[in-house]
Every structure is written in structure tokens, then in C-alpha cells.
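This part of the workshop introduces the protein records we will be handling. The question running through the whole workshop is how a given chain folds. To make this concrete, we reproduce a full record directly below:
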Amino acid sequence: MTPGRHRVYTEGWQSWSPAICYPASVPPLLPEQPWQHVMRYRPGSDLHPTAYQAEGLAVVDPGDGNPVQVYLTSDPTDPATIRVEDRGDHVVVDSSSALEQWEAPTTGVALTQVGDRLSKRLGARTGRQPRVWCSWYRYFEEVTAEHVRDALADIERAALPVDVVQIDDGWSTGLGDGLRPRSGFTDLDRLVGEIQDGGRRAGIWLAPFLVGQDTQVARNHPSWLIGDAGRNWGQDLLGLDLLHPGVQDLLHGHLSALRELGVDYLKLDFLYAGALTGPSRNRAESVAAYRSGLSLIREVMGDDCLLLGCGAPILPSVGLVDAMRVSPDTFHEGTADGSRGLRGLMSTAARTWMHGRLWTNDPDCIVARPGFALRDRWARESNRFGGMRSWSDRWDELDDHGRDLVREVLETTPAPSYDAGTVEEGLRVAGDEVQARRSRGDLG
């Protein structure tokens, strides 16, 4: 190995976990707060302060022209935790369970080989590449049915090639309180019909594997809960025990109601909560519970329903979802000017190899409004490394340039899958991004 020239690819646990191609001598990114560990890294897995940690997959490029070394978990449905420790002129690799190991000429080739192996082994669902309007980055939790109708009218007037109109968080009171529509969505069935009348899929956001601590389910059914799932919506979050018959009945009822409405696209968010470990559940059992929960959703919603995973354990989801968010959110409220950089670029670029092999990659929405300073670069990189095409603006609030960006993204057809050369380009971008993140202190 050549000191100063080697690099290490580490796959993260879930959508929001960093997938990184570390250049030589760049220290590992580590969470700064306990909630970041729970919500972005693998719960129950201790992080090493100096070793690079991967969940299920690592690739080491010696940087001297010799073949790269590939380390892939033997059981992707229960991925091994792999640690790669840089010791200057060599690295030491250890693992929590069995690995498959082989050599490849480059990291790009290695990752395409991994994708092909996993696809064949787990029966990956590929080939569905929707073009989506999503309510989130324009309305956040304040979305109403009238906002969605405005978007439908915009899409029709501008003749935009949108396949899915997806209503994000804000349409309901939450799973833990009965999934009742909020006041702005009392006629959800009518709205779904209006979306479908235009020949489009009706999409709904759902966080099916967790509840808030202050919800009815958490208060009335403590035996249904599995453990700490972080914090959001102003309250602590708790994972649901997906093997409990009561939880299964709850999920079945809510999903059946959405199916009967005609919903045939689900954005399934915060899915990591279905794979939490607990006092009576080890890692293997927790991942088995997660896959059981996803299988239940597929069974109820049917094979034609398009399932998009988000915040989802990566390798354990192969074969169960049609699309996967491969990055953190484009931005959070308060950073909508792009001042913290392109939050999703590093993992989107690093995970280019997954698109068309494991599922359709979702790099998250482009935001084309003038106030987002990085709109041009994000649209360009999303086109270059992404799969799903999605946007999240109000059409009449865009300037001419923003409208051109939206049309370009929607009308650009992604490759069925990306070749090793494009994967290598993504790895170079990801390597630059990890250094940029460290320089601005964005470690979690």
C-alpha cells in the first residue's frame, strides 16, 4: 500500500448514514451527539474513534496500482460491522461476522460487482424510475389539500412530465394517534381521486415503524415498543416491535385504508426504527423484525405499489423496496440558502453503484427557487449521479432559470444503471465532499 495515496470506501447503515470514500489520512466522520448515532448510524454498534467503520461493505484501494480488496458481508440481511484501521503503510480489517473477500481492478469495478451479486442474491426490484413532485421543501408540515391542488394545476398548465404527486409529512396526525388526516386533509379520498384523474400516481408519506412518546399508542401499549429511536416533532421517538401481533394488526389496518383510497406510492420514512436492538433482541433478530415489517407493507399494498425507503437500513432493504433515498435531506428548515453545502451530495455520489442494481436511487428533491444558492450544482449532480427525478417548488414562484432547471431534471432520463467509470467519478466527488465536511465541522 502507498501511504498518502490509498483510499477506503465504507458503506453506511441506512439512508442518512454517511457512505464515504475516504482519501488517505482523512479521519473518520463520527456523530457528535447521541441522537445522531441513533438516527444516522447503526444503533447498538460502538463506533471506533480512529478506525473507518462500515456496515456490510468496505473496499480498500492500496493506491499503488495493485488490485483493490473487497469485503462484503456474507449475510446482507444481517450485515457485519467492518472496521478498517489505517496504520500508515498498511490497513487492518476486522469484522463482527463472516465476510466474502475478493480482488477487483478498481473500486468502481468492485462496487458494480457487489451490486450485481446482491441483486442476484436478494432479487432486487429495479426498472421503476418515477418523476415526482413532493410537497415537503415548499410547505413542510403546513401542507394542505389546496396546496396539492395548486401543484396539480401548475403541472397541468406547464405540461410537466410528472408521474407521481407525493404528499409528504403534514397530512396526518401521525401513526401513533390513529393516522387521522389533519384539518387541511379531511377530503383525502377526493384528493387522491383528483391526482389519479390526471393519470398520475397518488403518493403518501408514512413513518410506519415508530411513534412519538406522547402518542396514544405509546401511552396505551408499552409492550409494543422496542426502544429509543431519537427525537423529532418535538418529542422523543420510540421504535415499534414489528413482530408483535398488535403492531402488525395496527400496520395492516392503516395500510389497508390507504390502499383502499387508491394510494399506490408510499414514501416510507424513518425506517431505521424497525431495526432497533433492545434488551431482549439482538442484532440479527432486530434486522429480521425489520424485514418482516417491510414484507408486511409489500403484502398489504401489493406488488404494483411503488415503495420508496428513506432512513432505511441499506443492505437489509434489497429486494423489498423499489427505490431508496441514498442521502440525507437536501436541507432542513433554517439552512435553505445552501449555507451548509450540499448535504446529500457525498452519499449520493458514493452510492452511484446502487442505482439500477439494488433499486432506483433517490438523491432527494432538487430545489430550484432563486433563494437556494446551490440550485444549479444540485440539479447538475442529481442528474449525473441520481436516479429518481423529483422537485419540490411552487411553479409560479420560480424564475425562468428555476423553471428551466426543473424541466431539465424531469426530462433527463437516468441510465438503467451506471457503469464503473461513472461510479469512479462519484467516488472522487464523495472524497472531495468528506474533506469539505470535515473542514466546516459537519461531522455527524
